[in-house]
């Protein structure tokens, strides 16, 4: 069997599929548990007239004004998007890792490069899903900013159709440029997670405890989120599609112009701290979600490999 055949087997391997399914299941479960925290974060990012308050205060306002189930508005499209997104990311990350390393020990630099490559593939494939779920999640919300126009979508398919009809197919990839920059978020997260994991498992072939996985998962996500948060805010605003920037230039120039405009405009209004509006809610949600996701991912993957009698590759870690 030639080297090309071996590389193909690494890409379409059973192990990569297990990692992808475990990652998707873990993320969906974790996001469901902490979904209201994401609702609070998104409102603070998109509605620039809403005052920055503590996460419990924001959720209390939302429930009071929109009903008890309002924090879970848009749950289904978000979960669908997240499931597809994490499946693609975990599959690409582990198949690229297996193809490149060929049984060798990984390094933080390699983890970062592989994470960026997996992130680029993920963004290009799943951005339309995230655009639709952002619109659906904010539909029916009561905004402080009166310039925001209400939307009327009857589910995921109808949202796709309406966006293509009224805004063009390209609108489904709104926010792709900051999303491509944001591949650094999961790349940095996985680099730190895999690095800490290697340190804990140094010289010992064992499964990490749930507490260890939770801790290193939380640290990795906290660092990655804080570094990239201003771009995440721009990404949310662009996906919502009501940032009011003219689109009279080429797609790339317009994307660059929109990102710079939104960042500068936010600094002018609220200072540098305005770039981090909603960070508390985001950190609370994303750190807890990522930590729980990594616990579930490791448990599901390890259990599956054990039940199927497949030895999990340890050299990659």
From TrEMBL:
Keywords (alphabetical) are: Membrane, Repeat, Transmembrane, Transmembrane helix, Transport
User: Where do transmembrane segments lie in this chain?
Assistant: 12-35, 74-92, 112-132, 171-192
Task: Please name the GO terms that the record assigns under molecular function.
Answer: ADP transmembrane transporter activity; AMP transmembrane transporter activity; ATP transmembrane transporter activity; coenzyme A transmembrane transporter activity; FAD transmembrane transporter activity; FMN transmembrane transporter activity; NAD transmembrane transporter activity
Q: Which Pfam families match?
A: Mito_carr
Q: Which GO terms describe its cellular component?
A: peroxisomal membrane
Q: Where are the Solcar repeats?
A: 14-99, 106-199, 208-303
Q: How does it sit in the membrane?
A: Multi-pass membrane protein
Its predominant location is membrane
Location of this chain's protein in the cell: Membrane
Record's family? Belongs to the mitochondrial carrier (TC 2.A.29) family.
Q: What is this protein called?
A: Peroxisomal membrane protein PMP34
């Amino acid at each position: 069997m030639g080297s090309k055949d071996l590389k193909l087997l690494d890409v379409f391997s059973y192990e990569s599929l297990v990692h992808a399914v475990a990652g998707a299941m873990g993320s969906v479960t974790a996001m469901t548990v902490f979904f209201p925290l994401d609702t609070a974060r998104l409102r603070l990012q998109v509605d620039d007239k809403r005052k920055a308050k503590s996460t419990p205060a924001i959720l209390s306002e939302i429930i009071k004004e929109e009903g008890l189930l309002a924090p879970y508005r848009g749950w289904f499209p978000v979960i669908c998007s997240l499931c597809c997104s994490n499946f693609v990311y975990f599959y690409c990350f582990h198949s690229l890792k297996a193809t490149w390393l060929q049984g060798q020990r990984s390094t933080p630099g390699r983890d970062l490069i592989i994470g960026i490559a997996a992130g680029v593939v993920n963004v290009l494939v799943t951005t339309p899903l995230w655009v639709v779920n952002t619109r659906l999640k904010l539909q029916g919300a009561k905004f402080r900013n009166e310039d925001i126009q209400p939307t009327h979508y009857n589910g995921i398919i109808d949202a796709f159709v309406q966006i293509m009809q009224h805004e063009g197919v390209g609108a489904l990839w709104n926010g792709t440029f900051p999303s491509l920059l944001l591949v650094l978020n999961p790349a940095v997260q996985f680099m730190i997670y895999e690095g800490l994991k290697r340190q804990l498992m140094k010289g010992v072939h064992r499964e990490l405890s749930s507490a260890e996985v939770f801790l290193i998962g939380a640290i990795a996500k906290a660092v990655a989120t804080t570094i990239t948060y201003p771009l995440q805010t721009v990404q949310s605003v662009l996906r919502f599609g009501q940032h009011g920037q003219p689109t009279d230039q080429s797609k790339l120039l317009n994307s660059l112009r929109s990102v710079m405009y939104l960042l500068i405009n936010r600094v002018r209004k609220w200072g540098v701290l305005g770039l981090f509006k909603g960070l508390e809610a985001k950190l609370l949600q994303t750190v807890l979600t990522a930590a729980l996701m990594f616990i579930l991912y490791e448990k599901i993957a390890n259990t599956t490999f054990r039940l199927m009698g497949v030895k999990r590759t340890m050299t990659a870690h």
